[in-house]
Amino acid sequence: MPRVKSLRPRTGLAAALAAACLAAGCAPRESLEDARARAAESVALAEIADLHKLITKAEAGQLSTESRVAIGIAESVSKELLEASLPQEKMIGDRLIVRLETAQPFFRGNNAILVCRASARTPRSSAAAHLELGGRLTNFRIDQGKLVSGVEIVHFKVLDSSLGDMGSDVLESIVGGNLDSLSGLLPGLEIPVTLEESIPIAGLNAGVVQVKGGSLPLKVSLAEVIPIKERLWILLDVSAGPWTANALAEKPE
Amino acid sequence: MRRATGVLLAGLLAIGACFFAWVQWRRAQRVPPPTAARLAELRTERDRLQAVFRAAVLARGEQSLAEAPVAGVMIGIPTILTSSIVEQVVTGLFGETTLTLKNLKVHKEGKVRAKMLIRKRTLGEFVLDVNIHQVQGILKPGKPTLVFGTSTVDLTLPVRLAEGKGSAELRFQWDSKGLAANTVCGDVDVTREVGGGVVPTDYEVSGSFKITAVGNAIRLEPRFPELAVRIFVDPSDQAWGIVDGVVKEQRKGCEIALSKVDIKEKLGGILGKGFNVKIPQKIFKPIKLPAGVKQSLKVQGIQMALEARPTGLLVTPDRLWYGADLNFRSNRPGAKP
Q: Which of A28, B63, B294, B306 has a Cα-to-Cα distance from A40 of 20 to 30 A?
Protein backbone atom coordinates (compact mmCIF):
# COMPACT_ATOMS: atom_id res chain seq x y z
CA MET A 1 0.00 0.00 0.00
CA PRO A 2 1.80 3.11 -1.18
CA ARG A 3 2.29 5.97 1.19
CA VAL A 4 0.21 8.92 -0.02
CA LYS A 5 1.95 12.27 -0.07
CA SER A 6 -0.17 14.77 1.87
CA LEU A 7 -1.64 17.60 -0.24
CA ARG A 8 -2.82 20.98 0.84
CA PRO A 9 -6.63 20.58 0.80
CA ARG A 10 -8.41 22.49 -1.83
CA THR A 11 -12.12 22.48 -1.88
CA GLY A 12 -12.46 21.88 -5.60
CA LEU A 13 -9.95 19.07 -5.73
CA ALA A 14 -11.48 17.32 -2.73
CA ALA A 15 -14.92 17.65 -4.20
CA ALA A 16 -13.80 16.25 -7.52
CA LEU A 17 -12.08 13.23 -5.97
CA ALA A 18 -15.01 12.58 -3.66
CA ALA A 19 -17.37 12.71 -6.61
CA ALA A 20 -15.30 10.27 -8.61
CA CYS A 21 -14.94 7.91 -5.72
CA LEU A 22 -18.60 7.98 -4.81
CA ALA A 23 -19.56 7.49 -8.40
CA ALA A 24 -17.32 4.48 -8.77
CA GLY A 25 -18.41 3.10 -5.46
CA CYS A 26 -22.09 3.24 -6.34
CA ALA A 27 -21.90 0.06 -8.38
CA PRO A 28 -21.93 -3.00 -6.14
CA ARG A 29 -18.65 -4.84 -5.77
CA GLU A 30 -18.67 -8.56 -6.54
CA SER A 31 -19.67 -10.51 -3.46
CA LEU A 32 -17.13 -12.60 -1.62
CA GLU A 33 -19.11 -15.76 -2.36
CA ASP A 34 -19.09 -15.06 -6.09
CA ALA A 35 -15.39 -14.34 -6.08
CA ARG A 36 -14.70 -17.54 -4.19
CA ALA A 37 -16.91 -19.56 -6.51
CA ARG A 38 -15.01 -18.16 -9.45
CA ALA A 39 -11.67 -19.06 -7.85
CA ALA A 40 -12.95 -22.53 -6.94
CA GLU A 41 -14.01 -23.14 -10.53
CA SER A 42 -10.65 -22.02 -11.82
CA VAL A 43 -8.82 -24.31 -9.39
CA ALA A 44 -11.07 -27.30 -10.16
CA LEU A 45 -10.56 -26.86 -13.90
CA ALA A 46 -6.78 -26.72 -13.40
CA GLU A 47 -6.94 -29.85 -11.22
CA ILE A 48 -8.95 -31.77 -13.79
CA ALA A 49 -6.58 -30.79 -16.59
CA ASP A 50 -3.55 -31.77 -14.50
CA LEU A 51 -5.12 -35.07 -13.49
CA HIS A 52 -5.69 -35.98 -17.12
CA LYS A 53 -1.99 -35.38 -17.78
CA LEU A 54 -0.99 -37.39 -14.70
CA ILE A 55 -3.21 -40.34 -15.61
CA THR A 56 -1.82 -40.37 -19.16
CA LYS A 57 1.70 -40.37 -17.73
CA ALA A 58 0.91 -43.19 -15.29
CA GLU A 59 -0.84 -45.33 -17.88
CA ALA A 60 2.05 -44.86 -20.30
CA GLY A 61 4.44 -46.22 -17.67
CA GLN A 62 6.29 -42.91 -17.40
CA LEU A 63 5.54 -42.50 -13.71
CA SER A 64 7.83 -44.81 -11.82
CA THR A 65 6.95 -45.09 -8.15
CA GLU A 66 7.82 -48.53 -6.81
CA SER A 67 11.59 -48.05 -6.68
CA ARG A 68 11.31 -44.65 -5.06
CA VAL A 69 10.97 -43.56 -1.46
CA ALA A 70 7.44 -42.25 -1.01
CA ILE A 71 6.65 -39.57 1.56
CA GLY A 72 3.05 -38.55 2.10
CA ILE A 73 2.04 -35.54 4.19
CA ALA A 74 -1.60 -34.96 5.05
CA GLU A 75 -3.18 -31.56 4.47
CA SER A 76 -4.01 -31.41 8.16
CA VAL A 77 -0.37 -31.85 9.21
CA SER A 78 0.79 -29.16 6.81
CA LYS A 79 -1.92 -26.84 8.09
CA GLU A 80 -0.88 -27.39 11.71
CA LEU A 81 2.73 -26.93 10.76
CA LEU A 82 2.12 -23.68 8.93
CA GLU A 83 -0.27 -22.31 11.50
CA ALA A 84 2.04 -23.08 14.39
CA SER A 85 4.13 -20.15 13.25
CA LEU A 86 1.17 -17.79 12.84
CA PRO A 87 0.31 -15.01 13.31
CA GLN A 88 3.29 -13.48 11.61
CA GLU A 89 3.71 -9.88 10.59
CA LYS A 90 5.68 -8.81 7.57
CA MET A 91 6.45 -5.39 6.25
CA ILE A 92 5.92 -4.95 2.55
CA GLY A 93 8.04 -2.21 1.05
CA ASP A 94 8.14 -0.17 4.27
CA ARG A 95 4.56 0.95 3.63
CA LEU A 96 2.28 -1.92 4.48
CA ILE A 97 2.20 -4.24 7.44
CA VAL A 98 0.64 -7.58 6.59
CA ARG A 99 -0.29 -9.93 9.38
CA LEU A 100 -0.75 -13.52 8.25
CA GLU A 101 -3.41 -15.09 10.42
CA THR A 102 -4.43 -18.45 8.95
CA ALA A 103 -3.06 -20.84 6.37
CA GLN A 104 -4.85 -23.72 4.71
CA PRO A 105 -3.06 -25.97 2.25
CA PHE A 106 -4.99 -27.99 -0.32
CA PHE A 107 -3.36 -31.04 -1.91
CA ARG A 108 -5.81 -32.15 -4.55
CA GLY A 109 -5.92 -32.99 -8.22
CA ASN A 110 -2.13 -32.68 -8.67
CA ASN A 111 -2.24 -29.11 -7.36
CA ALA A 112 -0.69 -27.95 -4.10
CA ILE A 113 -2.35 -24.72 -3.11
CA LEU A 114 -2.02 -22.56 -0.05
CA VAL A 115 -4.76 -20.13 0.96
CA CYS A 116 -3.96 -17.62 3.65
CA ARG A 117 -6.00 -15.00 5.46
CA ALA A 118 -4.26 -11.81 6.44
CA SER A 119 -4.93 -8.35 7.66
CA ALA A 120 -3.09 -5.34 6.34
CA ARG A 121 -2.60 -1.86 7.67
CA THR A 122 -0.45 1.11 6.93
CA PRO A 123 1.95 2.22 9.64
CA ARG A 124 0.99 5.91 9.41
CA SER A 125 -2.76 5.85 8.87
CA SER A 126 -5.84 4.03 10.00
CA ALA A 127 -6.42 2.36 6.60
CA ALA A 128 -6.81 -1.39 7.06
CA ALA A 129 -8.04 -4.37 5.09
CA HIS A 130 -8.66 -8.06 5.43
CA LEU A 131 -7.09 -10.07 2.66
CA GLU A 132 -7.19 -13.51 1.17
CA LEU A 133 -4.06 -14.69 -0.57
CA GLY A 134 -3.68 -17.83 -2.60
CA GLY A 135 -0.44 -19.42 -3.60
CA ARG A 136 0.72 -22.42 -5.54
CA LEU A 137 3.43 -24.49 -3.88
CA THR A 138 6.17 -24.80 -6.45
CA ASN A 139 9.86 -25.39 -6.80
CA PHE A 140 10.00 -28.36 -4.45
CA ARG A 141 13.61 -29.14 -3.81
CA ILE A 142 16.09 -30.62 -1.38
CA ASP A 143 18.01 -27.78 0.13
CA GLN A 144 20.74 -28.68 2.61
CA GLY A 145 18.98 -31.89 3.55
CA LYS A 146 15.63 -30.16 3.89
CA LEU A 147 12.69 -30.88 1.65
CA VAL A 148 11.20 -27.47 0.94
CA SER A 149 8.94 -25.68 -1.50
CA GLY A 150 8.55 -22.15 -2.66
CA VAL A 151 5.23 -20.45 -3.13
CA GLU A 152 4.01 -18.48 -6.08
CA ILE A 153 1.15 -16.10 -5.27
CA VAL A 154 -1.65 -16.52 -7.76
CA HIS A 155 -4.62 -15.02 -5.99
CA PHE A 156 -5.22 -11.82 -4.05
CA LYS A 157 -8.59 -10.73 -2.75
CA VAL A 158 -9.63 -7.91 -0.45
CA LEU A 159 -12.31 -9.34 1.81
CA ASP A 160 -13.18 -6.00 3.38
CA SER A 161 -11.41 -2.77 3.93
CA SER A 162 -11.70 0.66 5.42
CA LEU A 163 -11.20 2.03 1.92
CA GLY A 164 -14.67 0.99 0.79
CA ASP A 165 -15.58 -1.08 -2.23
CA MET A 166 -13.86 1.14 -4.73
CA GLY A 167 -10.68 1.26 -2.73
CA SER A 168 -10.77 -2.52 -2.48
CA ASP A 169 -11.29 -2.85 -6.23
CA VAL A 170 -8.45 -0.50 -6.96
CA LEU A 171 -6.18 -2.32 -4.52
CA GLU A 172 -7.07 -5.68 -6.06
CA SER A 173 -6.43 -4.37 -9.54
CA ILE A 174 -3.10 -2.85 -8.64
CA VAL A 175 -1.84 -5.78 -6.57
CA GLY A 176 -3.42 -8.36 -8.89
CA GLY A 177 -1.29 -7.08 -11.73
CA ASN A 178 1.88 -7.20 -9.61
CA LEU A 179 1.59 -10.34 -7.55
CA ASP A 180 5.34 -10.74 -7.73
CA SER A 181 5.63 -7.80 -5.36
CA LEU A 182 4.11 -10.01 -2.65
CA SER A 183 6.62 -12.81 -3.13
CA GLY A 184 7.99 -13.77 0.23
CA LEU A 185 4.77 -12.91 1.97
CA LEU A 186 3.43 -16.46 2.08
CA PRO A 187 5.50 -19.10 3.78
CA GLY A 188 6.87 -21.98 1.75
CA LEU A 189 6.39 -25.45 3.09
CA GLU A 190 9.08 -27.51 4.74
CA ILE A 191 8.24 -31.18 4.83
CA PRO A 192 8.95 -32.44 8.37
CA VAL A 193 11.01 -35.37 7.19
CA THR A 194 14.70 -36.04 7.68
CA LEU A 195 16.66 -37.17 4.70
CA GLU A 196 19.92 -38.72 5.75
CA GLU A 197 22.96 -38.17 3.59
CA SER A 198 24.63 -41.29 4.89
CA ILE A 199 24.16 -44.18 7.28
CA PRO A 200 27.06 -44.25 9.73
CA ILE A 201 27.86 -47.53 11.43
CA ALA A 202 30.29 -47.78 14.32
CA GLY A 203 33.12 -50.25 14.25
CA LEU A 204 34.24 -52.66 16.92
CA ASN A 205 37.57 -53.11 18.60
CA ALA A 206 37.03 -56.06 20.87
CA GLY A 207 40.60 -57.29 21.12
CA VAL A 208 40.63 -60.39 18.97
CA VAL A 209 37.88 -59.12 16.69
CA GLN A 210 38.48 -55.78 15.03
CA VAL A 211 35.93 -54.26 12.74
CA LYS A 212 36.37 -50.96 10.99
CA GLY A 213 33.26 -48.83 11.10
CA GLY A 214 32.18 -46.86 8.10
CA SER A 215 29.36 -45.15 6.42
CA LEU A 216 27.06 -45.81 3.56
CA PRO A 217 26.56 -42.62 1.55
CA LEU A 218 23.09 -41.96 0.20
CA LYS A 219 22.32 -39.98 -2.90
CA VAL A 220 18.87 -38.46 -2.66
CA SER A 221 17.09 -36.52 -5.39
CA LEU A 222 13.56 -35.35 -5.83
CA ALA A 223 11.73 -37.30 -8.52
CA GLU A 224 8.03 -36.40 -8.38
CA VAL A 225 5.61 -34.30 -6.36
CA ILE A 226 2.02 -35.45 -6.53
CA PRO A 227 -0.57 -33.60 -4.45
CA ILE A 228 -3.63 -35.80 -4.51
CA LYS A 229 -6.56 -36.81 -2.31
CA GLU A 230 -5.66 -34.38 0.48
CA ARG A 231 -2.10 -35.61 0.71
CA LEU A 232 1.14 -34.34 -0.72
CA TRP A 233 3.15 -37.25 -2.09
CA ILE A 234 6.82 -36.74 -2.68
CA LEU A 235 8.81 -39.40 -4.48
CA LEU A 236 12.55 -39.50 -4.01
CA ASP A 237 15.22 -41.35 -5.91
CA VAL A 238 17.59 -42.75 -3.33
CA SER A 239 20.68 -44.76 -4.11
CA ALA A 240 23.04 -46.17 -1.51
CA GLY A 241 26.76 -46.81 -1.56
CA PRO A 242 29.49 -47.61 -1.95
CA TRP A 243 30.47 -48.42 1.61
CA THR A 244 33.33 -46.32 2.92
CA ALA A 245 35.35 -47.69 5.81
CA ASN A 246 36.70 -45.52 8.61
CA ALA A 247 39.89 -45.99 10.55
CA LEU A 248 39.76 -48.57 13.29
CA ALA A 249 38.66 -47.32 16.69
CA GLU A 250 41.69 -47.00 18.92
CA LYS A 251 40.22 -48.08 22.23
CA PRO A 252 39.14 -51.69 22.57
CA GLU A 253 35.52 -52.07 23.67
CA MET B 1 -7.62 32.25 -10.79
CA ARG B 2 -11.24 31.14 -10.64
CA ARG B 3 -11.08 30.14 -14.27
CA ALA B 4 -8.01 28.00 -13.60
CA THR B 5 -9.74 26.32 -10.68
CA GLY B 6 -12.78 25.65 -12.85
CA VAL B 7 -10.62 24.04 -15.54
CA LEU B 8 -8.85 21.90 -12.97
CA LEU B 9 -12.18 20.84 -11.47
CA ALA B 10 -13.57 19.97 -14.86
CA GLY B 11 -10.45 17.99 -15.70
CA LEU B 12 -10.63 16.04 -12.46
CA LEU B 13 -14.32 15.32 -12.99
CA ALA B 14 -13.50 14.02 -16.45
CA ILE B 15 -10.79 11.75 -15.04
CA GLY B 16 -13.22 10.59 -12.35
CA ALA B 17 -15.85 9.83 -14.95
CA CYS B 18 -13.35 7.86 -17.02
CA PHE B 19 -12.27 5.90 -13.95
CA PHE B 20 -15.92 5.20 -13.08
CA ALA B 21 -16.54 4.01 -16.60
CA TRP B 22 -13.45 1.78 -16.43
CA VAL B 23 -14.61 0.19 -13.16
CA GLN B 24 -18.09 -0.39 -14.58
CA TRP B 25 -16.63 -1.83 -17.76
CA ARG B 26 -14.46 -4.25 -15.80
CA ARG B 27 -17.45 -5.38 -13.77
CA ALA B 28 -19.51 -5.82 -16.91
CA GLN B 29 -16.81 -7.98 -18.44
CA ARG B 30 -17.12 -10.53 -15.71
CA VAL B 31 -18.87 -13.69 -16.66
CA PRO B 32 -21.44 -14.84 -14.13
CA PRO B 33 -19.92 -16.83 -11.30
CA PRO B 34 -20.30 -20.63 -11.45
CA THR B 35 -23.30 -22.10 -9.75
CA ALA B 36 -23.05 -24.48 -6.82
CA ALA B 37 -24.15 -27.31 -9.11
CA ARG B 38 -21.37 -26.52 -11.58
CA LEU B 39 -18.78 -26.56 -8.77
CA ALA B 40 -20.15 -29.84 -7.41
CA GLU B 41 -19.92 -31.34 -10.88
CA LEU B 42 -16.30 -30.25 -11.26
CA ARG B 43 -15.37 -31.64 -7.85
CA THR B 44 -17.06 -34.94 -8.63
CA GLU B 45 -15.09 -35.17 -11.85
CA ARG B 46 -11.87 -34.32 -10.01
CA ASP B 47 -12.53 -37.01 -7.40
CA ARG B 48 -13.31 -39.53 -10.13
CA LEU B 49 -10.04 -38.75 -11.87
CA GLN B 50 -8.14 -39.01 -8.59
CA ALA B 51 -9.59 -42.51 -8.16
CA VAL B 52 -8.62 -43.39 -11.75
CA PHE B 53 -5.09 -42.21 -11.07
CA ARG B 54 -4.85 -44.22 -7.87
CA ALA B 55 -6.05 -47.33 -9.71
CA ALA B 56 -3.46 -46.72 -12.43
CA VAL B 57 -0.67 -46.43 -9.84
CA LEU B 58 -1.82 -49.59 -8.04
CA ALA B 59 -2.02 -51.44 -11.34
CA ARG B 60 1.56 -50.48 -12.15
CA GLY B 61 2.98 -52.15 -9.07
CA GLU B 62 2.22 -50.04 -6.01
CA GLN B 63 0.37 -52.96 -4.48
CA SER B 64 0.91 -52.03 -0.86
CA LEU B 65 -0.35 -48.45 -1.06
CA ALA B 66 -3.87 -49.63 -0.26
CA GLU B 67 -2.69 -51.30 2.97
CA ALA B 68 -0.26 -48.62 4.14
CA PRO B 69 -0.92 -47.27 7.64
CA VAL B 70 -2.77 -43.99 7.20
CA ALA B 71 -1.25 -41.22 9.29
CA GLY B 72 -0.28 -37.58 9.20
CA VAL B 73 3.09 -38.55 7.78
CA MET B 74 3.55 -41.71 5.76
CA ILE B 75 6.90 -42.96 4.61
CA GLY B 76 7.27 -45.88 2.23
CA ILE B 77 10.76 -47.24 1.71
CA PRO B 78 11.15 -49.74 -1.12
CA THR B 79 12.33 -53.17 -0.02
CA ILE B 80 14.82 -53.06 -2.89
CA LEU B 81 16.46 -50.02 -1.29
CA THR B 82 16.33 -51.59 2.17
CA SER B 83 17.99 -54.74 0.78
CA SER B 84 20.69 -52.66 -0.85
CA ILE B 85 21.38 -50.83 2.41
CA VAL B 86 21.46 -53.98 4.56
CA GLU B 87 23.63 -55.84 2.07
CA GLN B 88 26.16 -53.06 1.81
CA VAL B 89 26.32 -52.38 5.54
CA VAL B 90 26.73 -56.05 6.46
CA THR B 91 29.25 -56.87 3.75
CA GLY B 92 31.03 -53.59 4.43
CA LEU B 93 31.47 -54.48 8.10
CA PHE B 94 32.50 -58.08 7.50
CA GLY B 95 34.85 -57.04 4.72
CA GLU B 96 36.70 -54.88 7.21
CA THR B 97 36.90 -57.49 9.93
CA THR B 98 40.18 -58.94 11.08
CA LEU B 99 40.72 -61.59 13.73
CA THR B 100 44.00 -61.21 15.55
CA LEU B 101 45.34 -63.76 17.99
CA LYS B 102 48.43 -62.89 19.97
CA ASN B 103 50.84 -64.71 22.27
CA LEU B 104 49.40 -68.16 21.88
CA LYS B 105 51.49 -70.84 23.44
CA VAL B 106 51.30 -74.50 22.50
CA HIS B 107 53.33 -77.24 24.05
CA LYS B 108 53.98 -80.86 23.21
CA GLU B 109 56.35 -83.26 24.87
CA GLY B 110 57.01 -86.94 24.71
CA LYS B 111 59.43 -89.79 24.64
CA VAL B 112 60.95 -91.52 21.67
CA ARG B 113 61.45 -95.23 22.06
CA ALA B 114 63.19 -97.51 19.61
CA LYS B 115 64.21 -101.13 19.49
CA MET B 116 67.82 -101.35 20.52
CA LEU B 117 69.19 -104.82 19.86
CA ILE B 118 66.57 -106.99 21.60
CA ARG B 119 64.28 -104.59 23.42
CA LYS B 120 62.76 -101.19 23.12
CA ARG B 121 64.54 -98.41 24.91
CA THR B 122 63.91 -94.75 25.40
CA LEU B 123 66.17 -92.83 23.09
CA GLY B 124 65.26 -89.49 24.53
CA GLU B 125 62.60 -87.01 25.47
CA PHE B 126 61.51 -84.09 23.38
CA VAL B 127 59.74 -80.85 24.18
CA LEU B 128 58.19 -78.81 21.38
CA ASP B 129 57.06 -75.28 22.26
CA VAL B 130 55.42 -73.00 19.79
CA ASN B 131 54.93 -69.40 20.81
CA ILE B 132 52.71 -67.77 18.23
CA HIS B 133 53.47 -64.06 18.42
CA GLN B 134 50.55 -63.13 16.25
CA VAL B 135 48.27 -64.71 13.72
CA GLN B 136 45.79 -62.61 11.82
CA GLY B 137 42.87 -63.75 9.70
CA ILE B 138 40.81 -61.60 7.39
CA LEU B 139 37.14 -62.26 6.71
CA LYS B 140 35.67 -61.95 3.25
CA PRO B 141 31.88 -61.85 2.98
CA GLY B 142 30.00 -63.35 0.08
CA LYS B 143 26.65 -62.26 -1.31
CA PRO B 144 24.00 -62.20 1.41
CA THR B 145 20.53 -63.58 0.98
CA LEU B 146 17.69 -61.51 2.41
CA VAL B 147 14.13 -62.61 3.00
CA PHE B 148 11.51 -60.13 4.19
CA GLY B 149 9.04 -61.49 6.73
CA THR B 150 6.15 -59.75 8.43
CA SER B 151 8.39 -57.88 10.84
CA THR B 152 11.87 -59.14 10.14
CA VAL B 153 14.51 -59.34 7.46
CA ASP B 154 16.23 -62.71 7.62
CA LEU B 155 19.80 -62.65 6.48
CA THR B 156 22.19 -65.40 5.53
CA LEU B 157 25.73 -64.34 4.79
CA PRO B 158 28.47 -66.66 3.58
CA VAL B 159 31.77 -65.63 5.17
CA ARG B 160 35.19 -66.97 4.33
CA LEU B 161 38.17 -66.74 6.61
CA ALA B 162 40.05 -66.02 3.47
CA GLU B 163 43.58 -65.16 4.25
CA GLY B 164 45.94 -64.37 7.05
CA LYS B 165 49.48 -64.46 8.24
CA GLY B 166 51.36 -65.03 11.41
CA SER B 167 54.73 -65.52 13.00
CA ALA B 168 55.84 -67.84 15.73
CA GLU B 169 58.85 -68.95 17.69
CA LEU B 170 59.52 -72.67 17.52
CA ARG B 171 61.66 -74.23 20.22
CA PHE B 172 62.66 -77.87 20.03
CA GLN B 173 64.48 -79.51 22.93
CA TRP B 174 65.86 -83.01 22.86
CA ASP B 175 67.21 -84.77 25.88
CA SER B 176 69.03 -88.00 24.94
CA LYS B 177 68.57 -90.84 27.39
CA GLY B 178 71.14 -93.54 27.95
CA LEU B 179 74.79 -93.72 27.19
CA ALA B 180 74.42 -94.74 23.60
CA ALA B 181 71.96 -91.96 22.73
CA ASN B 182 74.00 -89.39 24.55
CA THR B 183 77.12 -90.55 22.77
CA VAL B 184 75.51 -90.48 19.34
CA CYS B 185 73.29 -87.46 19.66
CA GLY B 186 73.61 -85.60 22.92
CA ASP B 187 71.10 -82.89 23.84
CA VAL B 188 69.58 -80.45 21.39
CA ASP B 189 67.96 -77.10 22.10
CA VAL B 190 67.07 -75.19 18.97
CA THR B 191 64.92 -72.08 18.59
CA ARG B 192 63.76 -70.81 15.23
CA GLU B 193 61.41 -68.09 13.97
CA VAL B 194 58.85 -69.39 11.52
CA GLY B 195 56.02 -67.84 9.56
CA GLY B 196 52.75 -69.06 8.16
CA GLY B 197 49.26 -68.33 7.09
CA VAL B 198 45.78 -69.52 7.94
CA VAL B 199 43.79 -72.23 6.32
CA PRO B 200 40.84 -70.74 4.38
CA THR B 201 37.58 -71.85 5.94
CA ASP B 202 33.99 -71.11 5.05
CA TYR B 203 31.27 -70.13 7.50
CA GLU B 204 27.69 -68.99 7.30
CA VAL B 205 26.20 -66.21 9.37
CA SER B 206 22.46 -66.53 9.91
CA GLY B 207 20.16 -64.23 11.80
CA SER B 208 17.66 -61.50 11.29
CA PHE B 209 16.98 -57.83 11.67
CA LYS B 210 13.75 -56.95 13.45
CA ILE B 211 12.00 -54.08 11.71
CA THR B 212 10.85 -51.56 14.28
CA ALA B 213 9.33 -48.11 14.30
CA VAL B 214 11.41 -46.38 16.91
CA GLY B 215 10.24 -42.85 17.49
CA ASN B 216 10.71 -41.04 14.27
CA ALA B 217 12.08 -43.62 11.85
CA ILE B 218 12.32 -47.25 10.88
CA ARG B 219 15.16 -49.11 12.53
CA LEU B 220 16.49 -52.55 11.82
CA GLU B 221 17.54 -54.18 15.08
CA PRO B 222 20.03 -57.04 14.69
CA ARG B 223 19.32 -60.43 16.22
CA PHE B 224 22.30 -62.61 15.46
CA PRO B 225 24.04 -65.29 17.50
CA GLU B 226 27.78 -65.25 18.16
CA LEU B 227 29.74 -66.69 15.29
CA ALA B 228 32.35 -69.26 16.31
CA VAL B 229 35.34 -69.26 14.01
CA ARG B 230 38.31 -71.58 14.27
CA ILE B 231 41.60 -70.37 12.93
CA PHE B 232 43.85 -73.09 11.60
CA VAL B 233 47.44 -71.99 11.32
CA ASP B 234 49.17 -73.16 8.21
CA PRO B 235 52.99 -73.09 8.50
CA SER B 236 54.63 -71.85 5.35
CA ASP B 237 56.93 -73.97 3.18
CA GLN B 238 59.79 -71.92 4.56
CA ALA B 239 58.65 -72.86 8.08
CA TRP B 240 58.61 -76.55 7.19
CA GLY B 241 62.08 -76.12 5.70
CA ILE B 242 63.30 -74.70 8.97
CA VAL B 243 61.85 -77.67 10.86
CA ASP B 244 63.56 -80.07 8.45
CA GLY B 245 66.76 -78.11 8.95
CA VAL B 246 66.64 -78.59 12.71
CA VAL B 247 66.92 -82.35 12.18
CA LYS B 248 69.36 -82.21 9.30
CA GLU B 249 71.71 -79.94 11.23
CA GLN B 250 72.44 -82.80 13.65
CA ARG B 251 74.98 -85.56 13.29
CA LYS B 252 73.87 -88.52 11.22
CA GLY B 253 73.10 -90.78 14.17
CA CYS B 254 71.23 -88.01 15.86
CA GLU B 255 69.33 -87.21 12.68
CA ILE B 256 68.07 -90.78 12.66
CA ALA B 257 66.98 -90.50 16.28
CA LEU B 258 65.26 -87.14 15.79
CA SER B 259 63.55 -88.29 12.64
CA LYS B 260 61.66 -90.69 14.87
CA VAL B 261 60.25 -87.68 16.72
CA ASP B 262 58.76 -86.46 13.43
CA ILE B 263 58.66 -82.84 14.49
CA LYS B 264 56.61 -81.88 11.44
CA GLU B 265 53.91 -84.38 12.33
CA LYS B 266 53.87 -83.19 15.94
CA LEU B 267 53.75 -79.58 14.90
CA GLY B 268 50.99 -80.28 12.39
CA GLY B 269 49.06 -82.10 15.10
CA ILE B 270 49.31 -79.19 17.51
CA LEU B 271 48.38 -76.53 15.01
CA GLY B 272 45.79 -78.69 13.30
CA LYS B 273 43.46 -78.34 16.27
CA GLY B 274 43.07 -74.67 15.47
CA PHE B 275 42.24 -71.74 17.71
CA ASN B 276 38.69 -70.68 18.55
CA VAL B 277 37.57 -67.12 18.04
CA LYS B 278 34.07 -65.88 18.82
CA ILE B 279 32.79 -63.02 16.74
CA PRO B 280 30.43 -61.20 19.11
CA GLN B 281 26.84 -60.29 18.34
CA LYS B 282 27.68 -56.63 18.63
CA ILE B 283 29.49 -56.67 15.31
CA PHE B 284 25.97 -56.15 13.96
CA LYS B 285 24.66 -52.66 14.62
CA PRO B 286 21.15 -51.23 14.34
CA ILE B 287 20.53 -49.66 10.95
CA LYS B 288 18.35 -46.56 10.75
CA LEU B 289 16.67 -46.26 7.38
CA PRO B 290 17.24 -42.96 5.59
CA ALA B 291 13.88 -41.19 5.85
CA GLY B 292 12.19 -40.33 9.13
CA VAL B 293 10.16 -37.65 10.82
CA LYS B 294 12.02 -34.57 11.96
CA GLN B 295 12.32 -33.85 15.65
CA SER B 296 12.42 -30.12 15.22
CA LEU B 297 11.66 -27.65 12.51
CA LYS B 298 11.97 -23.93 11.96
CA VAL B 299 9.00 -22.31 10.26
CA GLN B 300 9.26 -18.61 9.51
CA GLY B 301 11.83 -18.17 12.24
CA ILE B 302 9.81 -20.07 14.84
CA GLN B 303 11.49 -23.15 16.22
CA MET B 304 9.14 -26.06 16.77
CA ALA B 305 9.63 -29.37 18.48
CA LEU B 306 7.97 -32.26 16.70
CA GLU B 307 6.96 -35.42 18.45
CA ALA B 308 6.19 -38.39 16.24
CA ARG B 309 3.70 -40.95 17.46
CA PRO B 310 4.07 -44.04 15.27
CA THR B 311 0.69 -45.31 14.13
CA GLY B 312 1.80 -48.33 12.22
CA LEU B 313 4.54 -50.26 10.53
CA LEU B 314 3.83 -52.55 7.65
CA VAL B 315 6.27 -54.75 5.81
CA THR B 316 5.10 -55.74 2.37
CA PRO B 317 6.94 -57.35 -0.52
CA ASP B 318 7.43 -53.98 -2.18
CA ARG B 319 7.72 -51.48 0.67
CA LEU B 320 8.30 -50.89 4.34
CA TRP B 321 5.56 -48.48 5.39
CA TYR B 322 5.83 -46.29 8.44
CA GLY B 323 3.07 -43.99 9.61
CA ALA B 324 3.22 -41.36 12.34
CA ASP B 325 1.05 -38.58 13.63
CA LEU B 326 2.76 -35.46 14.81
CA ASN B 327 2.47 -33.27 17.85
CA PHE B 328 3.84 -29.77 17.49
CA ARG B 329 5.22 -27.63 20.22
CA SER B 330 6.09 -24.12 19.23
CA ASN B 331 8.87 -22.43 21.12
CA ARG B 332 7.54 -18.94 20.51
CA PRO B 333 6.69 -16.88 23.58
CA GLY B 334 3.12 -17.44 24.73
CA ALA B 335 2.58 -20.43 22.44
CA LYS B 336 0.23 -23.20 23.51
CA PRO B 337 2.10 -26.24 24.82
A: A28
Mean pLDDT for chain A overall: 83
Q: Is B8 part of any domain?
A: no
Mean pLDDT of A39-55: 93
pLDDT (tens digit, 9 = 90+) per residue, A198-220?
Answer: 999 999 988 899 999 999 999 99
Asked whether residue B11 is assigned to any structural domain, the reply reads no
Task: Judge whether A51 is closer than 8 Å to chain B, CB to CB.
Answer: yes
Q: Is B326 on the interface with A (CB under 8 A)?
A: yes
Mean pLDDT, rounded, for B143-166 = 94
The per-residue pLDDT for range B7-17, each reduced to its tens digit, is 777 777 777 77
Does B268 lie in the same domain as B124?
yes
Q: Answer yes or no: do B312 and B252 share one domain.
A: no
- What are the chain B neighbours of A38 within 8 Å (beta carbons)? 33-34
> In this predicted structure, what is the pLDDT of residue A15?
45
Residue B281 has pLDDT above 60, yes or no: yes
Taking residues A88-108, report their average pLDDT: 87
Q: Are residues B201 and B307 in the same domain?
A: no
B23 within some domain: no
Between B178 and A251, the higher pLDDT residue: B178
Residue range(s) defining the domain that contains residue B100: 77-288
Cβ of B326 and A192 within 8 Å?
yes
Residue B328 has its nearest CB partner, among A65, A80, A169, at: A80
CB contact under 8 A, B81 and A240: yes
Portions of chain A given CATH number 3.15.10: 31-191
* Structure confidence at residue A183 as a pLDDT band (50, 70, 90): confident
Indicate the residue of B8, B46, B287 with minimum beta-carbon distance to A109. Answer: B46
For residues B296 and B260, membership in a common domain is answered with: no
In this structure, the strands spanning A209-211 and B97-116 are antiparallel
Looking at the partner chain, which of B16, B27, B56 has a beta carbon nearest the beta carbon of A55?
A: B56
- Chain B: closest CA distance from residue A129 (Å): 20
In this predicted complex, what is the ipTM? Answer: 0.84
Which class is domain A31-191? alpha beta
Residues A252, A204: Cα–Cα separation, whole Å: 8
Instruction: Answer yes or no: do B57 and B95 share one domain.
Output: no
* Least confident range of A53-57, A157-161, B23-27, B298-302: B23-27
Q: Which of A41, A66, A243 sits opposite B38 (nearest CB)?
A: A41
